[in-house]
Predict the 3D structure of the following.
Amino acid sequence: MIKFSQVTCHLGEQEFNYELQLPLGQVVAVMGASGSGKSTLLNILAGFIQPTSTTGSIYIGDQRVDQLEPAHRPVTSLFQEHNLFAHMTVFENLALGIRTSLKLTPQEAVQVEAALDQVGLKGMGSRLPKQLSGGQRQRVALGRALVRRKPLLLLDEPFSALDPSLRQEMAALVRAISKQHNLSVLLVTHEPRDALELAETVVFISDGKVHWQGPSVDFISQKDSQIRAYLGQSC
Amino acid sequence: MSVTIPKIPGLASSALSNPIKTRWFWFSAMSFALILMPLIIAVVAFYSYIDQAQWTLYLNDAYTWRVVWFSWWQASLSTLASLATALLVARALTRRQQFFGRWLLLRCFSVALVVPSIIAVFGIILLHGKYGYVNQLWQWVGGQPHSYVYGLTGILLAHVFFNLPLAARIILQRLDAISAETWRMSSQLGMTSKELWWHIEWPHIKTVLPQVAALIFALCFTSFAIVMTLGGGPKATTIEVAIFQAIRFDFDMAKGVYLSLLQIVFCGGILWVGLRLGRPIDMFTSLETGPGNMRPDLKSAWGKVSDAIVLLLATLLVLLPLLAVIVAAINSAWSEVLLDMRLWRAAYNSLWVALSSAFLSLLMAWGLLLAQRHWRRRYKTAAIAVEWMGSAILVVPPLVLATGLFIGLSPYVNVFEINLYIVVLVNALMGLPYILRVLSVAYLQIGADYDRLCSSLDIKQWPRLRLIEWPILRKPIGLALALVAAMSAGDLGVVALFGSPDIQTLPLLMYQRFGSYQSDAAGVTGVVLLALCLLIFAILERVIGGPND
């Protein structure tokens, strides 16, 4: 269970209040209009933004995480871009996930190679990010998430810079990997299709609060006016 | 009257058939002439002396080679010292985004960019001279006073005073540009401070360092006023100062020409290396508010202490010399100095030089950019030639150009009578690379963004200037004018070569006063000069640039 209770945060003029319980071992899509607080939810969970309230708490499984440093939380984040260091090879970018000093043992190097294989980049370890396509770069980032072996994957619109076909391919990869490694995934997305294809559960955020939560199959057919407005359907 | 069209590549018939396009061309042609004429006069003047120069004599002259060697040595050391300190300061500043002094320090750094060199020199002598504050402190704890400021030490101190702020701003800009995602990722991966440096910061900075180094090296290599005042003798003289001495003291024009040619060769080499290293860098971005990025290495106590020490030292380095000058002005001589008409005549001349240079420089830059924008698409070679014209001046440092004009014009006019005009011309040319650097990106962008829109809406000439160019460009124009004006007001290079007792400027007056040990009078003059420079800068930037958003 991922549990947010009474988590409040102020950013500039905006106020966010999260009250949320999500099952582990699923792909959950976080949806909502721009600026509604989707990314903020993920940023708070990863520890990039500190909540302003002192009474709230965040649990991932049995572990309370809101007091932990980002590096000690059981999560890996994937952003839309800037996931890789441009001057490091693909191999080194992955190796950072194991040791930031880049000094790997032979076994760890084998792990990196295996992860490269899994994300479909076998033999590309010596390339630089600029020699890869946008889709391949996101695969590298996904590979790093694998070697980090954290149970929760936070994806912040990771496919929105990709072409539709690539997007589908990546979605399939994420699904396969999360099932195989029993990962929980929190996916911020604008695409209702992503939610339908990938996610079991949808969380709809509006105005800094969780407005609706339920199975993704129900999301599209919701009668709620805000959700319909978001999806571009008139009532 | 028959008009002959100069053969400029790219001036196609289509341009001529359109009266508007020819009008811009004449404006550009005028600025080409303004830029090229002084250079041509100088070259011709040098050429006429080539036969007279006793090449073998100079080539075997140990003094000349010592001067050459010292020029390279001091510039290398100054560059190293400025860069090393700037790296420390920039890193501390990017780590302490919330630090209350960030704003103050960056303001000081901006001020340092326009402080006249003579002021900094005076401040450094007040601090580090034999009877300066540092020696007084040293004596107070029981030491013997040392005279260390004249020579290499003083030159280095002054060069770091000017170039640390410059380099730190450029490096900080690179560091602040690192994306928020990168910092988030690094904190999730749990990188240590050292790893942040090697994995993130260093790769970001290192691409820009060679260019910064080339820029600082060029500035230090051609620095004149600082070396003249702080060099303290033949042991610490650079080519730039040796040219001045050859002409003003030895009346040996041939030697001046020889040294000037040597200087042109060296500067050409430095510029060539600098251009090979990459595109020119933007150094005037506002940095007062940082991006507020979260990095994982902010909590260690050692980091906090070391950053505090670095930032405190940097603030003192820039602030103390200026404070020393201000303190020196508080003395009994102030009423006498302020009532002296010579001061106000000099101030008037400086103001006049500053404003004329700035606007002339802007005129030149506008002409160049206009041609560049029109030719950019169809006549690439011509556009590149125009771009080169703007930086050609970097090959000919101010004193060399002034020497050329001095020699070239002396047979025809009394150069001491028209000295201020020459000073304006040379300063305008010196300011040109700065103006171009501030303006060109925005100006050429307007062409790329709005040329088609403007022609489809038939917005041209005056309405275009008023509605499109002015609102977009007034900020960079204000900054560019302010910079060139403040630099020209504080100039003590060209003025020294042409200076006569009749026509004074404030920097010259100040130099004479503290050269003749009237340090009270020099202090008051210094504060007036400092105030003038800062006021010119602030007023031009605000009035022309408009209010801040």
In short: Strands of chain A lie at 2-11, 14-22, 27-31, 57-60, 63-64, 75-78, 152-156, 184-188, 201-206, 209-215. Chain A has eight helices and ten strands.
